[in-house]
Specification:
Elements lengths: L2 H38 L18 E3 L6 E4 L5 E2 L9 H11 L11 H13 L12 H9 L7 H17 L2 H11 L6 E2 L1 H9 L8 H9 L14 H17 L5 H8 L16 H15 L1 H6 L3 E4 L3 H22 L3 E8 L4 E6 L19 E2 L6 H10 L7 E4 L31 E4 H6 L3 H11 L1 H10 L22 E2 H12 L3 E3 L4 E5 L5 E4 L4 E3 L3 H11 L2 H8 L13 E6 L5 E8 L2 E8 L11 H4 L1 H14 L24 E2 L3 E2 L2 H4 L19 H14 L22 E5 L4 E3 L5 E7 L7 E6 L2 E6 L6 E3 L5 E11 L2 E11 L1
Parallel strand pairs: 1-5, 3-4, 22-28
Antiparallel strand pairs: 1-2, 5-13, 6-7, 6-18, 8-11, 9-10, 12-15, 13-14, 16-17, 17-18, 19-20, 21-23, 23-26, 24-25, 24-27, 27-28
Helix pairs in contact: 2-8, 2-9, 4-5, 4-6, 8-9, 9-10, 13-22, 14-16, 14-17, 14-19
Length: 803
């Protein structure tokens, strides 16, 4: 070996030795640190188990801190019974869903814990996700430890679980768990839960009843049989049964029979409670944030945002009008929400006409239910259009229009794939400003505005304003503007509150302050405004929605939307099937919305929201305005007179005549002026056809585009007709033939589209505008040719037979 090789060999050997030496030193230091940490851990003694603290009551107040809305369990209902007096179904169901190796482990299940840690890491929630806790660990956590989510507390939980298993038998541990677990509200332990839910002792419950009981403790408020998540409760009960079958606690036959068995719950979830729907809403939030045990046992002191005086008025008004509407309009229920748009604080939440009214499923909270909003969704679409440069004075034509590009312009059917919506009054008004169209809630202009602004932009606008439920963009088409997606009353009121607050959004909140039993503030309301909309756009929307002159043709001068001497913006909404009636309105100081209908989604009488729900809302708003006096809305800036005329309300050009808005503006850039080739827009001829026809029928004749243009009229008498096939001609099935048209002024046309029985079969874009077609369906058919140009819209049709 050379001297150089020996040198490098020696150096490598010394480097390895040095690395091993320092690695050993670091390992000893790390191990020592871990051992020291374990030694110094302050671990409670298992001996303190029987001297643990008695739980304290959490109290929920209104915003004054003086009106007690609810004492979560002022009197804890708990009856301790020996394990042998508890049904074996309850024991087996609990073990199956909570800890199916309970009788095999020594207090902890390392593999299960590691899996839970891995799941939490991959979900980005190391401390707040799945715990992988055994029943023994849950007993320790609920009795000996604090509820903070830290690694240190988890390690203490493991150590104490191992110790507890040495001091108590498995049956003793299971008995403690079953006697002390929360089952919702004041109910603790399976004996009291069995009596409360089923009217029988825990030793007498059936298999299905036991499965329900085992489903509750992990989230008793969420899974409450009196709450809003009955489907989730049913799914978890079925999961319990499946786990029981998997662990051989029940047979396949018992499992199948249990799935088919219906159970009725008796009793009521809460009594002695004020504003129950709101309290349930707040309580669920508290449990999600602080944990069930903290809410049930740690004596939290909660000051909410609720104005109980206004809430009481709201409850009385909702009950009175809902009972009246049940007789008049077959609308048995109603809901109401009010917030302060300047803060996002909930002032009123009435979830039904009566929380304890079982005839209408009164406990279901309509303020949180997802229903179609009808035209109440329109302001979001118009706001999106204003944001892009359209103005309240922009003109579109309210004319019966076909919007499906697979159907001919004169085919006014809405049978799929065609789409030609109606107005609520079946009246078509011709040229109409966006101000009047929105104020009067006219449908056809609204659909056009959605197309101009874009569906994605409209959905983005709704999301920015606080609507979270319209997540599947592929589901919605042009019907979105007429209320084609589901939203909640609470989110709609909050979103309208952004307009009231001139474009600044406050997240909707129900809590002002939470303190623990020692008076330590755990959370407190702090203003968090986010600008989500340009001030000018918000002012434009408010200006339109509060314009009583603009809405008078539809609602009358002195409607329920009008408040003499006070600026109040409002918008109604009625779904096409009359299952939902909405109204949302606001001043700068209060935003309030109401809904009427039936919980089971059956239709009401065919009346618009102005009759069904507006009177209720009007009476409540009068109360709210007195309590929260409003200022006037700040008007938007004057219109820029240099923008395209049609954006300023000028729709009849002295030089170019009458056209749809797509002739005058590029929908993506309306402020840039007239597009060079408007025919490129897929909707151009569909919108242009009814406008030119209306102009002709109204005696309005378009002037030439220029002195050299051969065009002198939008509707002309020159020849445009199908020349092949001729009327009543016979053609052969599966044999190609060429469709031709006869046109004596072809320079007027950019293309001709062809339809067989109103189904689009192709478009010819060059003269002579012929099209080859292979017939595949026997019998008589109708062929339609639609020719379009800048100032042209012509149609010809013939019938022929395929043999």
């Amino acid at each position: 070996m050379s001297l150089r090789s020996r040198f490098f060999t020696l150096m490598r050997s010394q480097w390895v030795q040095t690395t091993l030496f320092f690695g050993l030193i670091f390992g000893l230091f790390f191990t020592g640190s871990i051992l020291l940490w374990f030694v110094t851990l302050d671990i409670p003694s298992v001996d303190s188990f029987h001297s643990r603290q008695v739980s304290e009551s959490t109290k929920i107040y209104d915003r004054t801190g003086k009106v007690l809305l609810y004492d979560v369990h002022g009197t804890v209902r708990r009856t301790v019974v020996p394990l042998e007096n508890i049904s074996h179904h309850i024991r087996n169901a609990t073990i199956a869903i909570e800890d199916d190796e309970f009788y095999q482990h020594n207090g902890i299940r390392p593999l299960r814990t590691l899996k839970a840690i891995f799941d939490n890491i991959t979900s980005g929630n190391l401390l707040g996700g799945q715990g992988g806790s055994t029943i023994t660990q849950q007993v320790v956590k609920n009795t000996l430890l604090t509820r903070d989510k830290t690694i240190t507390r988890k390690i203490k939980e493991w150590i104490l679980a191992l110790k507890l298993e040495k001091q108590l038998t498995k049956d003793e541990i299971l008995g403690i768990y079953l006697n002390e677990s929360p089952y919702g509200g004041t109910i603790y332990g399976v004996e009291e839960a069995s009596l409360h839910f089923f009217g029988k002792s825990s030793q007498d419950v059936t298999l299905v009843e036991a499965a329900y009981l085992a489903a509750l403790p992990q989230a008793p408020t969420y899974y409450s049989p009196y709450g809003n998540h009955l489907e989730a409760l049913e799914n978890r009960k079925n999961l319990v049964l499946n786990q029981m079958k998997k662990n051989d606690f029940i047979s396949e036959e018992e499992y199948t029979l249990a799935l088919e068995t219906n159970i009725e719950f008796i009793g009521s979830d809460d009594t002695g409670i004020k504003a129950p729907h709101f309290v349930f809403y707040v309580r669920e939030y508290l449990e999600e944030k602080y944990g069930i045990n903290a809410v049930n046992e740690q004596g939290l002191h909660v000051i909410t945002t609720l104005d109980y005086a206004l809430q009481s008025k709201g409850e009385e008004i909702v009950e009175r009008y809902a009972l009246e509407n049940e007789v008049k309009y077959n609308a048995e229920n109603a809901g109401l929400v009010a917030i302060d748009p300047r803060t996002g604080q909930i002032l009123t939440m009435v979830g039904s006409r009566g929380y304890f009214d079982e005839s209408i499923d009164g406990k279901f909270n309509l303020a949180l239910a997802e229903r179609q909003p009808g035209s109440a969704f329109k302001p979001f679409v118009y706001a999106s259009a204003f944001e892009q440069g359209y103005t309240p004075e922009t003109v579109v034509f309210d004319l019966k229009t076909q919007f499906s590009t697979t159907c001919a312009p004169n085919n006014l059917s809405s049978t799929p794939p065609c789409y030609s919506p109606e107005n609520y009054d079946n009246i078509f008004r011709g040229p109409m400003t966006l101000r009047d169209a929105l104020a009067q809630s006219v449908n056809i202009p609204a659909v056009k505005v959605l197309y101009l602004s874009g569906i994605d932009a409209a959905l983005s606008m709704a999301e920015r304003l606080g609507i979270t439920t319209l997540t599947n963009k592929n589901r919605y088409g042009l019907t979105l503007v007429l209320g084609g997606g589901e939203v909640s009353l609470l989110e709609m009121v909050g979103a309208y509150g952004v307009f009231a607050n001139e474009g600044e959004r406050n997240e909707t909140v129900g809590i002002l302050r939470v303190e623990d039993a020692q008076g330590k503030v755990l959370e407190e309301y702090k203003e968090k405004k986010t600008r989500v909309l340009d001030t000018e756009v918000a002012r434009q929307v408010s200006d339109v929605l509060s314009d009583n002159v603009a809405r008078t043709p539809a609602f009358g001068e002195f409607s329920y939307l009008h408040f003499t001497g006070i600026d109040v913006a409002a918008k109604t909404g009625t779904t096409n099937d009359y299952r939902d009636a909405w109204i949302i309105g606001y001043t700068p100081s209060v935003s309030a919305g109401a809904w009427a209908g039936n919980n089971d989604n059956t239709p009401m009488e065919k009346r618009v929201a102005g009759f069904i729900i507006a009177p209720l809302w009007n009476e409540f708003m009068k109360e709210a305005i007195v309590k929260f006096p409003p200022k006037d809305f700040t008007p938007p800036k004057p219109l820029d007179q240099s923008i395209t005329p049609i954006l300023r309300g000028i729709w009849n050009s002295s030089q170019e005549g009458v056209h749809s808005i797509l002739y005058w503006v590029d929908k993506k850039n309306p402020l840039l002026g007239k597009p060079s080739n408007p025919q490129k827009d897929s909707q151009f001829f569909l919108w242009e056809y009814p406008v030119l026809l209306w102009a002709s029928n109204s005696g309005i004749v378009n002037t030439p585009i220029s002195t050299t243009s051969p065009v002198d009229s939008p509707i002309i008498t020159n020849t445009f007709s199908i020349s092949n096939p001729s009327p009543n001609n016979v053609v052969k099935k599966d044999i190609p033939f060429t469709i031709t048209v006869s046109i004596d002024r072809p320079e007027r046309f950019q293309n001709v589209s062809y339809y067989i029985n109103d189904t689009h079969i192709g478009t010819a874009s060059q003269f002579p505008f012929s099209l080859t077609f292979i017939p595949t369906t026997l019998g008589q058919s109708t062929l339609k040719a639609v020719g379009g140009g800048v100032n042209e819209a012509r149609i010809s049709e013939v019938q022929f037979t395929v043999q």
